[in-house]
Each structure stands twice: as C-alpha cells, then as structure tokens.
Amino acid sequence: DAGVIQSPRHEVTEMGQEVTLRCKPISGHNSLFWYRQTMMRGLELLIYFNNNVPIDDSGMPEDRFSAKMPNASFSTLKIQPSEPRDSAVYFCASSRTGVGNTEAFFGQGTRLTVV
Amino acid sequence: RKEVEQDPGPFNVPEGATVAFNCTYSNSASQSFFWYRQDCRKEPKLLMSVYSSGNEDGRFTAQLNRASQYISLLIRDSKLSDSATYLCTKGDYKLSFGAGTTVTVRA
C-alpha cells in the first residue's frame, strides 16, 4: 500500500495566485480529512469528507478556500486568491470509518509558502 | 473551548526518566481516543489507541479517565528517539486533534 499521497510536496507562490493541493487517499478508505498546521494554531481540521460527500466544512477559514472530492481516490483543496497568512503545512489524511476504528493515516503534507 | 486541549510543554527530560502528560476533552460521548507522534517536519503517525481503561505498549502507557475527561500518556525509560510532539485526538467522526505536547529527551 502506497499510503496517502499528496502533491506537491512544496509550493511557493505569489500572493493573489491560485493554489491547488492534491490528495490520493488509501484505497478502501471512505473518510478523508484536510488539515492545516502552523506553529501558532497547531493542527486544524479544515474539512471532512465521508463517502466523497463533505460532512463538516466548519473549519474552512473563509470563502477563498474550497475542497472537492470527485471520486473515492482523489481530492483537492484550492485557495483562490492566496494570501501570505495561508502559509502552512497542509495535510491530507484518510481512514476507514467504523465503530472503534477511526485511525487516520496522514500524507507527507504540502508545505505552502505564499510570498 | 476547543474539543481537545493539551499542555504544549515543552517537557525537557534526561534519558532514562519517566515523563507523563495529559489531554483533556470536552465531549464525554467519545468512545475511543488516540495518541499520535509527530517528528519535526514530518506527518503525524499513530502511536497508541485507547479504547477502554487503558493500553500499554512497551515503555508507553496510555490511560483514560472518563470521570475527569482526560487521557494520559506515560513514557518510561525515555530514549533520545522519543523526542517528538505527541498529539491526542478523540476517535469521533472528524478526528479533532489537540495542539500537541513537545517532549525533548536530552543525553
């Protein structure tokens, strides 16, 4: 199993540009999470999908952020327009939900720098 | 109030020492909890699960106190390689994480 795959690993972009982060969850997992991690705020949940449907997007900071999951093997997180305060490490994680079985596996993250 | 809260530390301990820290949670309906370990500039990885009264794995012991709504992690005979940030989470549908507790083991 290849694990959760995220791309790109690093992204440097100018303020105002659109940024798209990509995630391929582990095959067979039906839950997908996008997190943002900074020194100041820790690991914040942005959005959670179950069976490709967004269940909870209350963590999405503002309308500049959007996430999609068109199928069980792919998800994107888009920031448009990007701002310097969006600089962070963005993690995607997936899990096989079920009673007592919600261990999440994380991708290696995308380190985003907006200048 | 955040759903999961942790003492950020840092906990600086000598090799061989025992270190313990807690994680408090606000939703008492949670049935399962997890401790994750995150090394610098890496992704979090599962360390231990806590489903009932506790769990032990080698030098690591996790306990759940439902009455006071916290879980704890104890590391015995700490090694240099235990230096990391330890994150706790409730095993509910959206996996809310605490901010993490940083542990540094010194020689």
Walkthrough of the structure:
The complex is a heterodimer of chains A (115) and B (107). By secondary structure, chain A is mainly beta. Helix content of chain A is 0%, strand content 55%. Chain A has strands at residues 5-7, 10-13, 19-24, 31-38, 42-50, 53-56, 65-71, 74-79, 88-95, 104-106, 110-114. In chain A, a hairpin with a 3-residue loop joins strand 4 and strand 5 (42-50). Chain B contains no helices and ten strands. In chain B, the strands form two sheets. Chain B has a five-stranded antiparallel sheet with strand order 1-3-8-7-6, with no helix packed on it. Chain B has a five-stranded mixed sheet with strand order 2-10-9-4-5, with no helix packed on it. Helices cover 0% and strands 51% of the residues of chain B.
What would the keywords be for this entry?
heterodimer, A: 115 residues, mainly beta, 7-stranded mixed β-sheet, 4-stranded antiparallel β-sheet, 55% strand, globular, B: 107 residues, 5-stranded antiparallel β-sheet, 5-stranded mixed β-sheet, 0% helix
Quaternary state, please?
heterodimer
How many runs of DSSP E, i.e. beta strands of chain B?
10
Number of distinct beta strands of chain A: 11
Strand order of the biggest β-sheet of chain B: 1-3-8-7-6
**Helix count, DSSP H or I runs of 4 or more residues of chain A:** 0
Helical run tally of chain B: 0
Rounded mean pLDDT score of chain B: 90
State the shape of chain B.
globular
Helix content of chain A: under 10%
Note poorly predicted spans of chain B.
Answer: none
- Strand proportion of chain B, as a percent range, falls in over 45%
What is the element layout, followed by pairings?
The complex is a heterodimer of chains A (115) and B (107).
Chain A: E1 5-7, E2 10-13, E3 19-24, E4 31-38, E5 42-50, E6 53-56, E7 65-71, E8 74-79, E9 88-95, E10 104-106, E11 110-114
Chain B: E1 4-6, E2 11-14, E3 19-25, E4 33-38, E5 45-50, E6 54-57, E7 60-65, E8 70-75, E9 84-90, E10 101-106
